[in-house]
Amino acid sequence: MMFLSRLARDRTAVACLAIVAVVILAGIFADVLPLNDPTKVNVLAKFRAPSAKFPLGTDHLGRCTLSRLVHGIRPTVLLSLVTMACTLALGTMVGLVSGYFRGTVDELFMRTCDILLSFPSQVMILAVVGVLGPGMMNVVLANIVIKWAWYARMIRSSVIRFGDRGYVLFSKVSGAGTPFILFRHILPGVASELLVLASLDMGWVILNISTLSFLGLGVQAPAPEWGAMLSEAKEVMGRAPLLMFVPGTAIMAVVSAFNLIGDSVRDAMDPKTL
Amino acid sequence: MLLQASDIHVSFPEASPFFLRRRRRPVLKGVSLFLREGQCLGIVGESGCGKSTLGRVLIGLLRPERGRVLVCGEDLYDRRGTKARRCGSVVFQDYTSSVNPRFRIEAVMNEPLRTLEGLGKRELRERAAELLERVGLGGEFLDRYPHQLSGGQLQRVCIARALAGAPRFLLLDEAVSSLDVSVQVQIMDLLAELKETHGLSYLFITHDLEAVTYLCDSVLFMHDGVFVEETGDVSRIGDVTHPFARRLLSAVAGFDMA
Amino acid sequence: MNPLLRVRDLCVSAVGKNGRPTPLVKNVSFDVEEGMCVGILGESGSGKSLTCRSIVGLLGAGCSASGEVLFQGRNLLTARREELRRLRGAEISMILQNPMTSFDPMVTVEGHIAETLRAHGRTSRKDAVKTGIAMLEQMRIDNAASVLGCYPHQLSGGMLQRVMIGLALLFGPKLLIADEPTTALDSVTRFEMMKEIRRVRRECACAMLFVSHDLGVLSSVADTVLVMHRGEIVEKGELRKVFLSPKSEHARYLMETRSSLVRRFRRALGSVETADAAASF
Fold it and tell me: pTM for this structure?
């Protein structure tokens, strides 16, 4: 595929993809890796500097920071990926149906999107979590419920544009079924835009989940999560600044990596250079 | 009678400042035509006269507000009619967007074949190669991508694809207008040949009178949503009387070297 | 007398994906005398548009030109960007193929005129309106004042093409380059457009370089014609000579295909009133 080979030539993209891949793998295999117990409390060992036993030191409860960092990948990064996948799935389905069939269905969906999009997303997410109660699944759900509308909108306008192409018209004339047209003609065309939107937005989702955990609405103690770690570290910023740097840098690194991947994907898809 | 269209009316909504009172702009104002077996009918008019819209109505892409389209005896817009849909096919003007740029030519050719009968992979490839041969392209084109073909070659692929379902008539919607003149003549020669060998009928929509006289045997002149003149015999096209038709003729005639 | 435009050994090449340059235009040489119209005939891919763009310095990224393009003695290929910019629009103007996409859809006709004027130092709004109305009336556009306030999508293709010609002629250029201006138009509009271009030629006596793949259009406006094929000039000479007795193989091929198209049409025509058409030709 032309797009993959062009992406492979972009060194920034390859480096960022490598970073993200390492992070994801570490998160998946966190239990198998030789790490300390992330929840083991040892008050006598609190605020230790980095050493052989605790490579990144310990926090205010004597728990290994490195271990909490790696175990925190699951809620922070992996759940963000799940959120993004579900949002994309829901938004794409609605966008496809809305853009292809038009008419009353389109009006209904778009008015729903209008309503959802007229509220500021952060406030809405807080409201939904407030109603459902704190917890990771509720945070994920809130994100999906709010974000799908934006994707549906984007996908719909793309689908409308593709729907007028000669090859789609010919398929209709030659009697091809609607599923064929949607999945073989329109979806692949739309997929490239989708990919760009998704990779650029990943960073936002990660930040969102971390922020909610920072505010105490996401992950509940003692489970490790980068935003929650930041929240605990802010109390002891003066005494043990490392506790703040570690999760902060991790969030920044992963979000930046996704943003850079998004930029590279968009460049690789650019029709002018295609 | 292969195709019979009676009293077709189509109008498009106009952007209007009043939200509730949507004005509609009539594009086709009571158009009727029929196409016989073996006929090549040209529909000529300037841009904006509604001929492309008429084309869409006649192949089933746009349901008219009033009027009926009968193809091979069946109502084209009747949901249960499947024979009508198979009767005709279409070749568009813009060959680059008529083909999915991500498909290889083999996949492009397979699409209409697939939806018609359940054939195995090898048979599909053989059929595709045979169709390409009919339009003068070799089997090596099957593995290429659309952007690797020239305009003329791509349009030939579109013609071959249109023939895949064994249609009785082809709608050519400005099918040669985007090609160089020498390629236009080649494609029209090909179309004339295919007409003889396959017993096809053509509906040739264009603004180019020279192309019409080259390929068609009868001509309908269209202006502002209605047919204004008809010539049953293209060799007597010089006898038209309607002022618009004469204007079109003199505009084209004025460009030739004596 | 020195020709207005003298092109010698113009070569244009593009750098391909593998880094090697592909020659697109090879050793093109021709002259354009003052007040004369040179037509360039060729099919798609023959290099005719690239030749025109390299003259005004509008080649895209990845293309490079070499050779000599002397406009009134100055070599345009080696001129500085600012010098070229001042020439464009004022002494050398260009009209393009598709009028619908050549205008900024968010800017009115008046805005386009003002932009062109501003690029050459005239910035007053009253000046723009006055010049605009005078130009539109000169191009035989009725209701000049209301057309000034229209956006491109509100005007027809033919009218936009006239506005484009008017914009190109604002500063009375010495050379007008027309890159397939009638290709996107239908037969009747094309005829009107060529009438307009012929009138423009008579009235402003500028030299023209007219590119087209349509023999009929060229035959109504060009004095001499160059036939291009695969980046090279395969034949050049006076219009009637090239059309009636082409020497090169490709030119013969083009004339033959065109004449087979025309022959049938002429036969079918019989007794069409071509008086006014013949008179203007």
Answer: 0.81
